[in-house]
Amino acid sequence: MDDTLHCPICGNKMRTVNIKQLYERTGNWAERTCNGMNHSLQVVATPKGKVDLLKLSLNPKYSKFLEIDFVNQKCRIICMKDSKPDYIDIAKMIEPDFPDLVKLKERVLLYVTFS
After folding, report:
1. DSSP-derived secondary structure letter, 92
2. Over the stretch 10-50, which tens digit does the pLDDT of each residue have?
3. Cis peptide leading into 99, omega within 30 of 0?
4. CA-to-CA distance for 113 and 115, rounded, in angstroms?
5. CA distance 51 to 87
6. Cβ(9)–Cβ(39) below 8 Å
7. Which of 2, 5, 53, 81 gives a 20 to 30 Å CA spacing to 14?
8. Domain map of the chain by residue range?
9. What's the pTM?
10. How far apart are the C-alpha atoms of 35 and 94, rounded to whole Å?
């Protein structure tokens, strides 16, 4: 996935923070965030304009998140239960369908249901 300065969900300009070292790598990395209406999105991008990590909320209560690791081609679903995270690791990558997230939410719900 290519890096973007605007949120792929709502189109608003994302807040950018430059990071010196991230995930044991060196260089100038960028972390971009959007906290729009009923969504939260965090993107970690490389200096070459590629996304390494994407984390997004899946419900308005911010109790379910999907973390997509583009480098290792893996995903993690995070469900908050009693203010503590419960993790479901997925050995393959789920492709986000921006800006329509209905299909993505349905796929994640299936993983949560059968885990």
Report:
1. S
2. 889 999 876 655 544 545 678 889 988 878 899 988 878 88
3. yes
4. 6
5. 22
6. yes
7. 81
8. 15-113
9. 0.81
10. 22
